[in-house]
Please model this.
Amino acid sequence: MDSENRNVSTKSIFSGPRIDIVLEVFRQASIEVKLINDGPWKRCLHDVSLGYVDFAMGAYFDEERAKVFDFSDHYNTLTPSVFFLASKKLNITKVEDLEKLHGCGISGYSYSHYKIQPEKLDWTPDYGSVYRKLISGRCDFLLEELESVVDGENTKQFLHNPLIQHIPANWASAPSSYIITQKNGKSSAALKDFNRSLKIVIKSGRAAKLWKEGMGDLVYIP
Model:
């Protein structure tokens, strides 16, 4: 087992069930890690791609990323959703319903599972920017997974503000979360230990227990 201390960058998540599951897997694999939050997700991806940071958690798979990163097995699957102002209630059943609207996205995030073209989104650096645009009416919608909003320190305002509502994006493919590292980099071999320990943590029920402690009735899907 690899016991070298490694850095794991996150999407501004330092507590909560998703990170608890990942840390439990690393512990099971006897891999010591130190959590860091080095700014925007796009910068995080850049630092991991160059090997400055060993791993990033919470990454979604897409073909372009697979050219740059090695991926672990996925550790949870999420619910695609659309967030919008309650005063401008949206009836969205397919991606084409979004095309006449002004949507916001966060730079560096992958939205391919929503089947929306990147040029259709107004890119912002973080959740705070999206929130301000949404509240002020400068953005009609945000595409984001429900579990990410529930579990994120910087996203709770999207749920706690009665001015904002959300609905499932039923046309979208449910994305899964992965650990990523520099492709063929110094930490790639550790993914084998991570994957082996992940199977143990899931099969034992430990992952589901950690999830329920933070997510309540939201069902854990590996």
